[in-house]
Write a structure and sequence with these properties.
The chain has about 280 residues and is mainly alpha-helical. The protein has 14 helices and two strands, in the order E-E-H-H-H-H-H-H-H-H-H-H-H-H-H-H.
């Protein structure tokens, strides 16, 4: 690098020709990579209990909420470990494998999405106006509606997974986790909120086009999961979101974090059922 010196008083100041510096566009090209990395860390800290160091800037994720499915790939592969190990060891007790898989899936999320499912169940089963349903959904108590919907969801998910061999359970839970998070991404982009909260904050920072991005991010499933169940899993998840969004608009006037979390859990159940039905066909 060529440097030029000039004397100012008793000090020598060095100047470097501007042309020798990298083009500022070089740094601009680097920023998106850093943003994406911060976004992924913030996403995983928001959706899992994985120890990932100091808290990342939440806005880094909220401004890129279409990346939700990335968390599904992580939790899906981790939840699939019992099934993968069972397939390697030729362990064929599908009921035990299914139970371990579901337990690990709940543990990895810290039960946060399942908590949303329970709250949604209370609002779903409540009688009366939208205001009464919202109060039932957002209060701190766990009612009969929460227990009923939670039990039904877990039982159907368990029944679906336990009907599959170990390799099928692994494929199903990976697809279910990715598709469940895809539903959360669709909710962030298209689910108009009915009050202030985390969902409202993410929604205001999201764009409608994020709905397309989050679906595209689920398509790599087709590269390593059998195409037919993976494709039908993605389609069923999109339909699940559409139905849930319409139901939430009718009952509550919109979407909140509880509805979004419920979409994740219900979507996972639907995808697992799709795998079970196609396996038995």
């Amino acid at each position: 690098m060529n440097c030029a010196a000039r004397i100012v008083g008793e000090q020598t100041k060095w100047t470097i020709p501007q042309a020798d510096f990298p083009n500022p566009a070089f740094y601009e090209r680097e920023k998106p990579t850093l943003i994406r990395m911060k976004s992924v860390i913030a996403l995983l800290q928001f959706t899992t209990i994985l120890p990932l160091g100091k808290p990342a800037d939440f806005d880094a994720f909220a401004k890129h909420s279409w990346i939700y499915p990335l968390a599904g790939y992580v939790t899906g592969f981790l939840a699939a470990l019992p099934a993968i190990l069972a397939a390697v060891l030729d362990f064929n007790n599908s009921m035990v494998i299914a139970a371990l898989t579901i337990a690990l899936s709940l543990f990895l999320s810290g039960g946060n999405h399942f908590d949303g499912l329970l709250d949604f169940g209370d609002g779903l089963m409540a009688h009366g106006s939208s205001e009464k349903r919202i109060r039932a959904m957002t209060d701190r108590t766990t009612g009969a509606g929460a227990l009923a919907l939670g039990m039904v969801t877990l039982l159907l998910t368990f029944a679906a997974l336990s009907s599959l061999p170990a390799a099928g359970i692994a494929a199903a839970i990976i697809t279910a986790e990715v598709c469940g998070k895809m539903i959360m991404g669709l909710s962030s982009a298209l689910g108009k909120p009915f009050h202030e909260g985390i969902h409202h904050y993410i929604y205001t920072l999201s764009k409608r086009r994020f709905a397309v991005y989050t679906i595209l991010l689920a398509l790599p499933l087709l590269l390593f999961i059998p195409v037919k169940p993976a494709l039908w899993g993605i389609v069923s998840a999109v339909l699940t979101f559409a139905g849930l969004a319409l139901l939430a608009k009718k009952l509550f006037g919109g979407v909140n974090g509880d509805v979004t979390g419920a979409g994740n859990e219900i979507g996972k159940m639907i995808v697992c059922l799709v795998f079970a039905v196609l396996a038995s066909a």
